[in-house]
Amino acid sequence: MTDFGYKEVDADEKTRLVGRVFDSVARRYDVMNDLMSLGVHRVWKRRFVAGCRLREGERLLDLAGGTGDIARLAAGRGARVSVGDINRAMLSVGRERMDAEGKVDGLDWLQVNAERLPFADASFDHVTITFGLRNVTFRDRALAEMHRVLRPGGRVHIMEFSKVGLPVLGKVYDAWSFQVLPRIGAAIAGDKESYQYLAESIRRFPDQETLAGMLESAGFEEVRWDNLSGGICAIHRGVKV
């Protein structure tokens, strides 16, 4: 059994339910991100990619790459990016958007399961996953796979919602997440239930220290994290030695 928001479900059932959530929200995903974060997610993502310290020609695997926000920023810094996502609808939206903009060439778009990556050992210089790890059924397997496909000296970069440090901010954040976001989801995306799940999944996700411990258990060293916006979001990084 594993968590699907506040519910406990069979592991296979979680995979199916998460797939249904993202099938539903794919077309409105970017609009909803702007509304949910009041546009702040764009600032977070720029900081995240800047902190990856990418070099020209390095290979990057962007898991849960969805609509391509991270891929666009990373490719702009000279990285060769493979966008991986388990959800075909999200990949389709991302590829269509990139083709329409005509700004980024040479991206690989791949439907992959983060728990069973179809790549050889030591294939990438960097692995990123942004707001996607909490939707993975077996996170320990996904982290182990990220470690496996990185070359020695390669780095993992994870950005995910985390634990708010200030009690006052936490109360405001809870009210926004559980009272406002599902209503926005119903009005804009026509799907209240999916955004209720997304809010619940954030609360069920491990806090900063716990996730750091999971990275270390997967074999990563030099693990550290930085809080953004008072801990609403956190960036974790680690090195494969």
Please render the helix and strand layout as text.
Elements: E1 2-4, E2 7-9, H1 11-25, H2 29-37, H3 40-52, E3 59-63, H4 69-75, E4 80-85, H5 88-101, E5 108-111, E6 124-130, H6 139-149, E7 150-161, H7 167-189, H8 192-204, H9 208-217, E8 221-228, E9 233-239
Parallel strand pairs: 3-4, 3-6, 4-5, 6-7
Antiparallel strand pairs: 1-2, 7-9, 8-9
What does this entry look like structurally?
By secondary structure, this protein is α/β, with parallel strands linked by helices. It has a single domain, classed as Vaccinia Virus protein VP39 (Rossmann fold, 3-Layer(aba) Sandwich). The protein has 9 helices and 9 strands. The protein has helices at about 10-25, 30-35, 40-50, 70-75, 90-100, 140-150, 165-190, 190-205, 210-215, and strands spanning about 1-5, 5-10, 60-65, 80-85, 110, 125-130, 150-160, 220-230, 235-240. The strands form 2 sheets. A 7-stranded mixed sheet has the order 5-4-3-6-7-9-8, sandwiched between helices. The chain has a two-stranded antiparallel ribbon with strand order 1-2. Helix 4 (about 70-75) links the parallel strand 3 (about 60-65) and strand 4. Helix 2 (about 30-35) packs antiparallel against helix 7 (about 165-190) and helix 7 (about 165-190) packs antiparallel against helix 8 (about 190-205). The model has no long low-confidence stretch (mean pLDDT about 95). It holds the Pfam family Ubie_methyltran. It is an enzyme of class 2 (transferase). InterPro entries: SAM-dependent_MTases_sf (IPR029063), UbiE/COQ5_MeTrFase (IPR004033), UbiE/COQ5_MeTrFase_CS (IPR023576).
